[in-house]
Design a protein that fits this description.
37% of the residues lie in helices and 15% in strands. By secondary structure, it is α/β, with parallel strands linked by helices. It has a single domain, classed as 3-Layer(aba) Sandwich (Rossmann fold). It binds zinc ion. This is LmbE protein.
Amino acid sequence: MTQCLLTVHAHPDDEASRGGATVAHYTAQGVRAVLVTCTDGGAGEVLNPAVTDDFTPERFVAVRSAELDASARNLGYSAVHRLGYRDSGMDGTAGGAEAFVRAPLDEAATRLARVIADERPDVVIGYGTNHTRDPHPDHIRANEVLTRRVDLLDHTPAVYHIAFSRRRHRALHQACVDSGVPSPYEGGLSAPPGAFDDEWITTLVDVTKGDAVERRLDALRSHVTQVPPASGWFALSPQQLRDAFPYEEYTRVGAAPREAVVHDLFTAPA
Ligand SMILES: [Zn+2]
């Protein structure tokens, strides 16, 4: 039976910037990948100076939705499910009554549970609870909905939180220094303790095979309104990224402290 991986993301573009190469890696091996995006991204702004259109709010949402589909194609997703909430904005005040943060938790969890009941994934990937460097209320809500969702399920996939360790920040920062380009990773070097500590990592997915890294960058580029060509995401070339740090990192929910690291999301330790 085909293995299935389901990811839960807050906004269009999060699926590209968080764990995108992992999805590209697994879909290249025949794994079915399913994306759940909780909000429409409508509270964002155009961040690419090359995009000069003056979008109406409705048009902006439509453009971001099309960008999401293009990104998902690049990563090899078989399906994109939209939970249908409005983006709550960085301060949590956008989106009106349909904002993700104002939706009843059980209602949002039930929407996610229906997708999971249909898809029956072996692996679910979402966000962790350490948001000290990621305070977006929709990201925090996505974690709450995913956590709630687990209680509603009649089967138990392995659940992972996306991580980004201090070790990875150090390696990527050093690669930028060595190549003489400005480093977008400097902030992570002084991150507070928590999910950024190396000992929380349970699973390292090697994303150096094939073109997983290129596909992650292509997915990012699909978000034309959000990702300028001069973005820090492209500071290093795909090969430099592979050489500097060959993995994307995860913390398996329920793992024992300092559990031995494994290299496959579908292989939980015995
Ligand atoms: Zn987001």
